[in-house]
Amino acid sequence: MLPIISAGVAPGAALLCYFYLHDKYESEPFSLVFKMFITGLLIVFPIMFLQYTMHHEIIISSHVFEAFVETALLEEFSKWFVLYYMIYRHVEFDDYYDGIVYGVAVSLGFATLENILYLFANGLDTAFGRALLPVSSHALYGVIMGYYLGRARFKTKASKMPWLLMSFMIPFLLHGVYDLIILSFADNWMMMMIPFMTFLWWLGLKKVKLANRRSRKRNLVFMNQSKRFKDPPA
Prior knowledge:
Blueprint: H1 2-21, H2 30-42, H3 44-57, H4 63-86, H5 96-122, H6 127-153, H7 160-184, H8 189-213, H9 218-230
Helix pairs in contact: 1-5, 1-6, 2-5, 3-4, 4-5, 4-6, 4-7, 5-6, 6-7, 6-8, 7-8
Organism: Aureibacillus halotolerans
Membrane topology: Multi-pass membrane protein
Main location: membrane
């Protein structure tokens, strides 16, 4: 049991640390980040119940429906809902990159428990592939969702809506494409997945750079550093 739990937790913890430490100007309170991670973990159970009910009560034999509705819509909307109502107006959400940190925390909480449950059902042999694909893809959906929430957070009231819409729609569409590749290309899905994951990592890391570049605290940090160099020693 312990090896499976360790293998299930390790990739999510590593990715969360990676994105947490890429905040160049001010780290978020770890207690709040951990709270969002646990919240992401807890929403696995209602989502699984809804997916089970939908799969057995709404009998639509379609890969598109399964990928975009049963999976992507339920999972990404649930994560978006948690972020919007628990973090979006929180006092600690005071910079663009903060959205990425909290988005990744919720997404990886979800992905970590999902990963543990999958490893219990299918064994440790699948752990490496799970870390490379589902866990990392969830982290990147969280990056993109959080980036656009961060853009919305600091827009005027009249111009928030397009950014809020993108914060849900883009991760939702990317997640749907990911699942559609797996469902539709049973024999050679990896040939499609490699370029898709390459694009997803490129897009996620681009949002990380943009969020840090747009930081509301960047100029303040540079001003403090310049002042320190200019001030004569006491």
